[in-house]
Design brief:
The protein is of the alpha+beta class. 25% of the residues lie in helices and 25% in strands. A 6-stranded mixed beta sheet has the order 36-40-41-39-38-37, with helices on both faces.
Length: 807
């Protein structure tokens, strides 16, 4: 915090002569100009200096473009453009292009975030006194505004709409998207929910009572809420509250904190500290009822602050993160004939686990309830009400545990006989969720780390007392565990595991699934693909990567990005393996194989025109998503028929996207080494120019020409006289020459049947779009989103595809 103060002071001194009485920072950013991450003097400031906007450090050498309260002690962030993809501390910049598009680029020039706007005229980027970052035109109309895309905070006068969502940070000082969401549900009600790949559920308002008991109304479908300047909040579902310091004056923010609690804060500008001016209380929200707070098997209780603990016989999965829950010290086994005799229960008074009731019984005895749970492998424990009603709650999962003196439920957790009993109580850890809490920064994490290492030191001290012989054995075992944990934390990078919605497979699992990599179904420049079947019966395609030079940490980070990409025209990545030299990706198995087997084969069951047209459209949609829509924009760099797969309905799915991230070699000019397949490479590859999305557009155009002609671009090239070994211009020139003569039928695959006007229209549209995509000048090629528009609008009069407005 002292460093931040010195930084602000130095900026004030350095800028005083240039800006005189004006606040430090830029008042606006004009087209063609940038804010560079290296220059601490480059940041925007609101007219009265309440807010600042610039690069905010989130790691050792990683930054996010952010908005923060200027006068708060810790520069409290209220918005981030790239919270899930920080950029490098060198050569990264935010640029306002002349067409009004606001673009954030990383050190290698790749686009990390963009406002995705287009407009002409006199435009500028400004930070308003409300904290709203806007791209506006000369008539003061907003072309884009940050208020439409909140992160974890709602500011006064910022409208909260049906499309808005506040998403918490992952942890103190970790700004990545967390697991707690504040949004309108489908029934027009504002709610808080816990959302992870394995578990999702609403925890506020109370789902056990009706919306009317909670004081809400589902009838207003406008779904709008706002926090006004006075500190009053009002929503269309009739949810209202006022700040305790209600009135004009204090700067405020409504934030979903990393612990899942929604809080209204007011700023004391004399100290720069925040105080809580509203907090859901009483029956409305209970900190220990926040789902996922203590993880699987974890128990939350007030001691006196909310604190997590593991049941007796269980231990924490991660000493630094309670949300990962607990695990039994001895694994439970189920299914054998004697399993019920081997099982026992740990009794926990005044304890219950919310939800996941496998069955419900009432007016039965405790013994009957116990036998019911023992008889099923699905039952992990049961709760029994001690109020005389005989209510029995067998559970299929033990999550969201809490302990209170007034809880009438006695909880029984299934365990194996002989496990530690109640005398072995695992230590607790405060969550610091009190009403007086101030949000802490990364310095608190370092304190937690020091506590962890003090705990390890105590553990070593105990081991030493055992004796020399056991010291060697236990020390060796501990070192392996510690080394594994350090390696996993390095690979996880503190947050990646929970952000990933797919599985990390072991090498042994994939070797078993593929029967020792027996059935090869494909081979390419990145590796060999094998068909396999997982233990759960899913058929998969396992790509065994060759030539990956990245370490486990970098590989895992890149794969986690690819795993988040999801579109119906992209092959789904289900998981990966990273064990030393073994690097593998596990994909869904696509039944009908790759496009080349259908287009270039002599089969009598060749694809028809309608099928080829839909394949062209689907492929364009998949590439458009990669280039412009998904969170992490991705260049494919190897678009070809072998990387376009067809499912059982012959719908196209683009494969091998993201390989450029795993195998990239980048310098200041872009990709320093040619990637892709000869015959599909854009001219800029050969000219050593910077590679962008238009290179994929070129390759896509070649694929469409192949769909039309039935000819292989690479094969056609190798059979041509006088081939110079360059790009696929021979095929392109041949088709252009024939098309210019009006002899389009000579270009077409003879297996295609063109019997009506509609079919001829499709042929014409495909040909024109393809030739537009393979133009030598990449600036004349359309974006993939424009290709989608042209192909899906074929029933309308064909536009002039050479009109510059299409580029």
């Amino acid at each position: 915090m002292f460093v931040s103060f010195l930084w602000i002071s130095s900026v004030l001194l350095a800028s005083s002569s240039a800006w005189a009485a004006a606040p430090v920072g830029l008042q606006s950013l004009t087209p063609g100009n940038s804010i560079a991450v290296e220059d601490e003097n480059q940041f925007l400031i609101s007219p009265n200096g309440t807010f600042s906007s610039g690069f905010y450090r989130v790691g050792n050498n990683s930054y996010c473009y952010s908005i923060w309260y200027t006068n708060s002690f810790d520069k409290t962030v209220v918005w981030m453009a790239n919270r899930d993809k920080p950029v490098n501390g060198e050569k990264s910049r935010l640029t306002l292009n002349v067409n009004s598009n606001l673009v954030l680029t990383d050190a290698d020039g790749t686009v990390v975030w963009s406002s995705d706007t287009v407009s002409g005229g006199n435009i500028q980027l400004r930070l308003l006194e409300t904290g709203n970052l806007v791209v506006m035109n000369q008539s003061q109309s907003f072309i884009w505004q940050s208020f439409d895309f909140p992160t974890d905070t709602l500011l006064p006068e910022q409208r909260f709409l049906k499309t808005s969502t506040l998403i918490s940070m992952q942890n103190r000082g970790i700004y990545l998207s967390g697991f707690y969401y504040f949004k309108f549900n489908d029934y027009n009600i504002l709610n808080l929910l816990y959302n992870t790949p394995s578990l999702s559920g609403i925890y506020w308002p109370d789902t056990m009572v009706t919306v009317f008991v909670n004081g809400r109304s589902p009838y207003n479908s406008s779904r709008i809420a706002i926090l006004n300047k006075m500190g009053g909040f009002e929503s269309s579902d009739n949810f209202k509250f006022n700040a305790t310091d209600y009135g004009l004056g204090p700067k405020r923010r409504l934030t979903v904190d990393f612990d899942g609690v929604l809080r209204l804060y007011s700023l004391d500008e004399s100290t720069g500290n925040w105080t809580i001016s509203w907090l859901p209380s009483g029956a409305r929200i209970d900190a220990c009822m926040v789902h996922g707070l203590c993880g699987d098997y974890g128990i939350c209780e007030y001691n006196p602050l909310p604190a997590c603990s593991c049941p007796p016989g269980f231990t924490r999965n991660d000493p630094s993160d309670w949300t990962k829950g607990c695990r039994p010290l001895l694994n439970l086994t189920c299914g054998s004939t004697n399993s019920s005799k081997e099982m026992d229960f740990i009794a926990l008074p005044n304890t219950d686990y919310f939800g996941h009731d496998w069955a419900y019984r009432q007016e039965i005895s405790l013994e009957t309830c116990r036998d019911l749970c023992l008889s099923s492998c699905e039952c992990t424990g049961f709760g029994y009400a001690l109020d005389g009603t005989g209510q029995c709650y067998p559970k299929s999962a033990l999550r969201n545990g809490y302990r209170k003196p007034d809880t009438i439920v006695l909880m029984f957790i299934k365990t194996r006989k002989g496990e530690p009993s109640l005398r072995q109580q695992i230590s607790t850890s405060d969550l610091d969720c009190s009403g007086s809490q101030t949000v802490l920064g990364a310095d608190h994490l370092y304190a937690e780390d020091s506590n962890k290492f003090r705990y390890i030191g105590l553990l070593l001290g105990v081991v030493v007392t055992v004796g020399i012989s056991e010291l060697v054995f236990v020390g060796f075992g501990w070192w392996n565990v510690f080394r594994k944990r350090v390696n996993e934390e390095l690979v996880n990078m503190g947050y990646i595991v929970l952000a990933m919605g797919f599985k990390r497979f072991s090498y042994a699992e994939l070797k078993r699934a593929t029967k020792n990599f027996k059935q090869e179904i494909g081979k390419g420049g990145f590796g060999t693909v094998y068909k396999g079947e997982l233990d759960d019966g899913r058929v998969v395609a396992v790509k065994r990567l060759e030539g990956v030079l990245q370490g486990d940490a970098e590989f895992w980070a890149e794969v986690s990005i690819i795993g988040k990409i999801n579109h119906k025209n992209l092959v789904k990545l289900w998981g990966f393996c990273a064990e030393k030299q073994h690097k593998m990706l596990v994909y869904e198995y696509v039944q009908n194989g790759s496009l080349d087997k259908h287009v270039f084969s002599d089969s009598s069951q060749a694809l028809g025109l309608e099928q080829r047209y839909e394949i062209a459209v689907g492929t364009a949609k998949g590439l458009s998503y990669l280039h412009e829509e998904c969170l992490e924009w991705v260049l494919h760099c190897d678009v070809k028929p072998q990387n376009i797969l067809l499912d059982e309905a012959l719908e196209s799915k683009v494969a091998d996207f993201g390989m450029s991230k795993l195998f990239r070699e980048i310098n200041e000019s872009g990709f320093s080494k040619v990637r892709g397949t000869r015959g599909y490479l854009a001219p800029e590859w050969m000219m050593n120019l910077k590679i962008d999305a238009k290179a994929d557009v070129y390759s896509y155009g070649i694929v469409v020409l192949e769909l039309l002609s039935g000819k292989n671009a690479y094969g056609f090239q190798s059979s041509s006289v006088g081939n110079d070994g360059g790009s696929s211009t021979d095929l392109v020139k041949w088709i252009m020459k024939v098309a210019d003569k009006g002899e389009v039928e000579k270009v077409m695959d003879p297996r295609l049947k063109v019997e009506d006007k509609q079919s001829k229209k499709k042929i014409e549209t495909l040909l024109k779009v393809a030739l537009l995509c393979v133009k030598e000048d990449r600036n004349q090629r359309p974006a993939m989103s424009r290709v989608v528009e042209l192909l899906t609008g074929y029933e309308e009069p064909t536009p002039d595809l050479y009109d510059p407005k299409f580029y």
